[in-house]
């Protein structure tokens, strides 16, 4: 049975988080198709990873039999996280925009799993071709042609880090204007916000069903 790696990063719980709400829709549809499949779940906001340090970084560039005992110990977490990624048939990531970019907890995860010569830095990495669905929610509008288009460092960055770096096949689901109902200054955008939210849930469910069907036939 296929394995789903699911990462949430929003600091807000449950329905209070647009990204968590949409990743939950994806996961619900996926599990309906694969009730006996494996789900590896990490809530990086509830249980944040430590930042990559010098020992763990250096260990990633050394052959396993050349690592010092300290490097072996420091690399253990990177090995666990990279193995989870390599095990996954599909990766699901909730990536809300915080201060124009991704949560620092997601950046920490990336720093651990990007291992040159293994998951990255080669024409064919150990994660090449794995489908990844990223729910990139944001409180405002940052799409092409909007006044804040140049402030968008979520899909731009993750497209490179996940796609070009790790070789994943990335699809973005983007609920926008999520603050419209709570910010009086955005009152005239509520209808657009609701439409964006509904489309995000529809897109997430459709993508989950598409991928679930693909792996059921594999």
TrEMBL record:
Among the GO molecular function terms of this UniProt record, one is: oxidoreductase activity, acting on NAD(P)H, quinone or similar compound as acceptor
User: What protein family does this chain belong to?
Assistant: Belongs to the azoreductase type 1 family.
Give its E.C. classification number. Answer: 1.6.5.-, 1.7.1.17
What is this enzyme's class at the first EC digit? oxidoreductase
For this protein, what reaction is catalysed? N,N-dimethyl-1,4-phenylenediamine + anthranilate + 2 NAD(+) = 2-(4-dimethylaminophenyl)diazenylbenzoate + 2 NADH + 2 H(+); 2 a quinone + NADH + H(+) = 2 a 1,4-benzosemiquinone + NAD(+)
Residues the record lists as binding FMN: 10, 17-19, 97-100, 137-140
Gene (name only): azoR
Which organism is this protein's natural source?
Streptomyces violaceusniger
Q: Report the cofactor remark.
A: Binds 1 FMN per subunit.
* Name of this chain's protein: FMN dependent NADH:quinone oxidoreductase
Please give the subunit comment from the record: Homodimer.
Write down the InterPro entries for this protein, in alphabetical order.
Answer: Flavodoxin_fold (IPR003680), Flavoprotein-like_sf (IPR029039), FMN-dep_NADH:Q_OxRdtase_AzoR1 (IPR050104), NADH:quinone_OxRdtase_FMN_depd (IPR023048)
Q: What does this protein do?
A: Also exhibits azoreductase activity. Catalyzes the reductive cleavage of the azo bond in aromatic azo compounds to the corresponding amines.
Locate the Flavodoxin-like fold domain: which residues?
A: 4-163
- Tell me yes or no: is NAD among this UniProt entry's keywords: yes
Query: What are the names of the required cofactors?
Result: FMN
Q: What keywords are assigned to this protein? A: Flavoprotein, FMN, NAD, Oxidoreductase
Q: Which domain of life is it from?
A: Bacteria
């Amino acid at each position: 049975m296929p394995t789903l790696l699911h990462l949430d990063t929003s600091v807000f719980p449950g329905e209070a988080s647009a990204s968590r709400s949409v990743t939950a829709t994806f996961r619900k549809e996926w599990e309906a198709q694969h009730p006996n499949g494996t789900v590896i779940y990490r809530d990086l906001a509830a249980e944040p990873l430590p930042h990559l340090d010098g020992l763990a970084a250096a260990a990633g560039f050394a052959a396993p039999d050349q690592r010092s005992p300290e490097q072996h110990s420091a690399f253990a977490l990177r090995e666990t996280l990279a193995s989870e990624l390599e095990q996954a048939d599909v990766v699901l990531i909730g990536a809300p925009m915080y201060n124009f970019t991704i949560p620092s907890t997601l950046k920490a995860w990336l720093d651990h799993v990007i291992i040159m010569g293994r998951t990255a830095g080669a024409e064919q990495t150990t994660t090449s071709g794995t489908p990844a669905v990223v729910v990139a929610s944001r409180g405002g509008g940052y799409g092409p042609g909007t006044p804040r288009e140049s402030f968008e460092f979520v899909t731009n960055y993750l497209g490179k880090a996940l796609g070009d770096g790790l070789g994943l096949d990335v699809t973005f689901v983007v609920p926008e204007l999520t603050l419209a109902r709570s910010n009086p200054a955005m009152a005239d955008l509520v209808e657009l916000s609701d439409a964006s939210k509904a489309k995000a849930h529809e897109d997430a469910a459709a993508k989950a069903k598409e991928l679930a069907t693909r792996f059921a036939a594999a």
